Amino acid sequence: MDIAGITLKNPVMPASGTFGSGQEYSGFMDLNQLGAVVTKGVSLVPWEGNPTPRIMETPSGMINAVGLQNPGIDVFIERDLPFLRQFDTKVFVNVCGSTVADYLEAVERLAGQGIDMLEINISCPNVEHGGIAFGQEPGMVEYITKEIKRKAAQPMSMKLTPNVTDITEIARAAEAGGADALSLINTITGMRIDVKKRAFSVANKTGGLSGPAIKPIALRMVWQTCRAVSIPVIGMGGIQSAEDALEFIMAGAAAVAVGTANFRNPCAMPEIIEGLEKYMEENGIKDLQEIKGIVNRKEK
Ligand SMILES: Cc1cc2nc3c(=O)[nH]c(=O)nc-3n(C[C@H](O)[C@H](O)[C@H](O)COP(=O)(O)O)c2cc1C
What we know:
- The protein is of the alpha/beta class.
- The two termini are 27 Å apart.
- A hairpin with a 2-residue loop joins β1 and β2 (6-7).
- Helix content is 31%, strand content 19%.
- α4 (167-176) crosses α5 (215-228) and α5 (215-228) packs parallel to α6 (242-251).
- Strands 3-16-15-10-9-8-7-4 form an eight-stranded parallel β-sheet. Strands 5-6-14-11 form a four-stranded antiparallel β-sheet, with no helix packed on it.
- The mean pLDDT is 94.
- It has nine helices and 16 strands.
- Flavin mononucleotide is lined by residues 15-18, 40-41, 64, 66, 68, 94, 121, 159, 186-187, 210-211, 214, 236-239, 258-261.
């Protein structure tokens, strides 16, 4: 599979924020097996994240309000990148920021660091521009994509929020801004209340819902997006099996990311990779390209 000129040995990678920078999982799997490793979001300066509790289970999923806690780009470059570069897998670095200037400086610092792709998270809350998340307004999406693209040394995928009315409008704006790929979906805003305490379950009140509960919504949005743009899409949202991954590929995704499933089954990704190989063998498929977006080809 090819994404924006980058050849992946297979289309499976972790979803940002559910795999750290791979260290914690390296005891469970050989990281060389993965198509790519996608890091937890990294910002220019360290972010503390939100107060606890910030994670809660839900039926078929979880809510998190971690708040993009990360040690900042200096620690990331010194500590995490050398670890990742040892492996024969592509390195995708997820970048977050509070202001456009923050994103630009972070992206500039990542040039020449042996990174294959940037994934730009434009769904952070509490940002400048009237407090609206960068990823919810098409004009802003196009602007920030264009600005970052000017500085980016690597191809970049814009990570889109599903918390919008029309995902295709946002996707087209990112494409118009020069995005090389799109990653979707991020989490869907949700909430839980602890009835014993008569209070919000997570300190942030609301959080992002992820896991199998969101898969049908994610699949629909990936399908809509793949029809609306001509750049490749990395599909995610509730994927926990090879069959789930195949659904996203048949909807048009060029690759898939596995998030919440990693917490439940740290071997989910190797199992999905094996399942995809088995499916290909059993169905005489040489290249997943043959079934990419196949549901559309069957339409009259
Ligand atoms: C605990 C947690 C942390 C996350 N952190 C990030 C992050 O740092 N950057 C980002 O772009 N997405 C982040 N996400 C969103 C995931 O990458 C993914 O888009 C979302 O969870 C949907 O996939 P899933 O249902 O397979 O988990 C996070 C998700 C979870 C559950």
